[in-house]
Amino acid sequence: MKYCMNCGHVTAGEPFYCGTCGRTYDVKLCPRSHVNPRGAEVCSQCGSRELSTPQPKIPMSWRLLAILARVGIGIVLVTLTLGIVVAMIRTPETQHFFVAIGMLLGALWWAFTRLPDWLQEILRSIWKYWSRRDDD
Length: 136
Description:
Strand content: 5-15%
Helix content: 40-55%
Shape: elongated
Distance between the termini: 22 Å
């Protein structure tokens, strides 16, 4: 995913340009989609002078600040999650619940591995069908 510094939208995947405003990410493209460096005036492969306009350049201090913010938020989320899990595991009722769920899942996996291969394939295809149907 890439974030456009020009319009503020996020584009999925590894695109060369923003799908909203049309600015390119850190490169210039000619009409034939040849990739050129940000400072190029002419396409290095076809010689075209019609190059795309890249998004505004991001100062290194802003990039560092963004990385630190992501890491800080990640540390806070991990700490909160671990705190909640530890608090839940301390009570005997939740310990029994997690042990029962673990044993149930273990028994289900054991039973699944004992099924014939053809039946496992049928179950997998049903699972794929229902997961694709939920995505739509």
